[in-house]
Amino acid sequence: MACGMPPYSRCVKWCFGCEHYWKLLFFFFYLNHLVSGHIRYSIPEEMKKGSLIGNVAQDLGLDLKRLRSGRARIVTGDSIQNTELKTDKGILVVKERIDREQLCGDVTPCSFSFEVILENPMELHPVKVMIQDQNDNPPQVLYPVQTGGSLVAEMVPRSADVGYLVTKVVAVDVDSGQNAWLSYKLQKATDRALFEVGLQNGEIRTIRQVTDKDAVKQRLTVIVEDNGQPSRSATVIVNVAVADSFPEVLSEFTDFTQDKEYNDNLTFYLVLALAVVSFLFITCLVVIISVKIYRWRQSRVMYHSNLPVIPYYPPRYSDTLGTGTLQHVYNYEVCRTTDSRKSDCKFGIAGSQNVLIMDPSSTGTMQRIQSEKSILDEPDSPLEVS
Question: Is the pTM of this model over 0.90?
């Protein structure tokens, strides 16, 4: 086709597209040349940290010198690395414990991929690791819901025929494959001749006609097992009420629940009260005995003591040997005056700040202030009293 004026633009666009096509083709050819090997490993889940996955150097045909010189490393699409490459040994090990349910959920088969990159020259080696499921999870019961506080019961009329569907136990297992296959078994029952449980579907049905002699409250214990090795199980309790009316069922199970809770609470409070009273009684008894022993020991010590008794006198206690009214700390002196016709007494003051003068012709005593002391202390100045 000739490239005229109008078709010329279309020809240029086509040639431009061809150029990009060849570049893209060359890029894929170069990338395919870089990818020289592809390996796959299969490991069980929950392997310990450091467990061996495989020998990368041997499986890729590489020697240890090439791994070290090419600075071999692992590149993943996300930030989580479950494996680690040991370049000194050329092996691939588990970096962190791998949980299949956390990694893939319900998706089967479960796997993750990464690339081993070498430089000088550049090489890419894709690696895919398959995770094998292990029976590490027990079954989970979805129905009936197991509640601790309330009591749920399935109602069966007394007119129910053989094969009447009472309820269905629903359970799941998060494991995959045969580890998730579940089976149901009736472990205990109030009347084992009245109910049965389907082995595969968990349906609880009557196996005979219900009579008036059957108890209103029926309790069934169903065990759910998986098909893993070793097998894991879960237990569910199913309450069944054999009655024709709902008020009858409500009264029966409400009384039963309230009585049970009341008895449990009463027993707990009685035990608690007994423990508190016993503790208080023992404590009081120990305190009383300790006080009695302490007082007895104190009395014994005082009775057998041989120390002399030393009387205590107050600081200004009067002299018991004297008959005067002066305090014990005073000193006094009796002397004669120069005039024999006058009888005066002169007292020397040693330990007091006041002067006491007595006149025989008077009937009392007079105490002077401290300012008169200088007159009494002069030797040539007699004191005359009229």
Answer: no
